[in-house]
Sequence to fold (67 residues):
Amino acid sequence: MPPLVIPPLATAAVLGAVLVGRWAVREFRRVNAELDALKAGKAKAPVDRAQLRKLRRDPESGVYRPD
Fold:
C-alpha cells in the first residue's frame, strides 16, 4: 500500500513548491515595481513641512510632544 501513496504526495509537494515559487516571484516583482516608482518620484505628492506640527521635548519626562 505505501508505494501507491507516495507518488501522489510527491506530486502534491512538487505542485505546492511550484505555486509558492510563482507567488514569491510575483511578490518580488510587485515590490520592486513599487520601489522603482518611489525612486522615480511618482508615488506621492511632497509634504508641505510648514503645515506639520512641531515637536518639542518635555524637559521633565523626555518625551517629545506637539507644540
